Amino acid sequence: MYNRRQELILGYVKAQEKVSRKEVETYISRAFPEKNSRITILRDLELLIADGLVARTGKARGTTYHPSSRSVLLDTLDVNAYFDQDQDQRILRSESFNFDIWPHLTGLLTEAEKVELDALNQQYREGRASMTPTVLQKELERLTIEFSWKSSKIEGNTYALLDTEQLIKNHAEATGKTRAEAVMILNHKDALDFVFKSADFFKKLSPAKIEDVHRLLVRDLGVTHGIRKNLVRITGTNYRPPDNVFQIQDAMNALCALVNQTAHPIEKALIAVLMISYIQPFEDGNKRASRILGNALLLAYNCCPLSYRSVDEVEYKKGILLFYEQNNLSYFKTIFIDQFHQAITKYF
Q1: Fewest Cβ atoms closer than 10 Å to its Cβ: which of 1, 54, 136, 254?
Q2: What does the domain layout of the chain look like in residue ranges?
Q3: Residue 173 DSSP class
Q4: Distance of CA 31 to CAs 3, 7, 10, Å?
């Protein structure tokens, strides 16, 4: 994404908090004595500004550069070192929901990333358009099985992939598994079927539509429908989601407004997956709902849905927890983009 020189510039600006172009040139000349012309440095700084990681103030010789208010969202962290700390040792940016986060959730994909993802998605569109109805139906069924399996597995479901296939195709429950595990998987299948058949319905997101998907996912699992009215705790973190029903409703409205005004569909999906998980609007099934809604948004704009079949469940959870605790989405964004690559490669 960024070359080594640009990464060093970004790191230097963040470390110093406020620097001039001349100071950047002096710093970079130690690592790149032959590639640090004024024009090159200015070009690199302009790229980092365009990507929302660096801000510029002042004019002419008084111009200075400093980290943008959004840069913490996309800053690269040492994930292993962070999670080597026990839950109670980690210092959270905030232990409660950050109600000031909304203005910063823009430009999460760089222009280069958008170009790359759009080119990949064109492969999906061409591949899907070339399929006969029978072949397309089989491919959607395959993705549904693998998504239902992996999304459930992320939540602790112990069904194997082949058992999931038998359950969805033949309604044959696996021996030694609970009824609730089978229901969870079948509910995934029904929810994904719904968004496949109603793609245009999700071009504009609303809290009611999110609740529609959630209702399908938790059917017959003893989970209350609608916005929760009680506090929830999350295993593995000291982060506390909002516990006031009016604050949750406000956050849901803000989320839908942000998603609807975001132009790029893959960025829409990324925001939805992260923020539904972060808000935790329901008493259970939040991350399941977030993944379905992410796919609903992708399908609404003719983008390839994700199965998450190759994602490591622990790494997925680390990406989510980093966002909860540090409002940092860099690791989850990497996982999300990788899963989009995987979906383009493996399906359609």
Answers
A1: 1
A2: 4-68, 102-346
A3: P
A4: 13, 12, 14
- Residue 181: burial class (beta carbons within 10 Å; 0-12, 13-18, 19+): buried
Indicate the class that CATH gives domain 102-346: mainly alpha
Q: What pLDDT, on the 0 to 100 scale, is given for residue 217?
A: 98
Distances (CA, A) of 276 to 55, 219, 249, 314: 29, 19, 12, 19
- Residue with token string 């199965």: 307
- Determine how many CB atoms are found less than 10 A away from the CB of residue 33: 8
Closest by CA position to 214, among listed 224, 205, 199: 224
Phi-psi region of 129 (alpha: psi -120 to 50; beta: other; left: phi over 0): alpha
CATH architecture, domain defined by 4-68: Orthogonal Bundle (1.10)
Average pLDDT of the segment spanning 173-198: 97
Determine the distance from the C-alpha atom of residue 216 to the mean position of all C-alpha atoms in its chain, rounded to a whole number: 22
What does the block give as tokens for 56? 């510029």
CA angle (191, 196, 197) in 5-degree steps? 100
Nearest to 1 by CA among 48, 39, 67, 46: 48
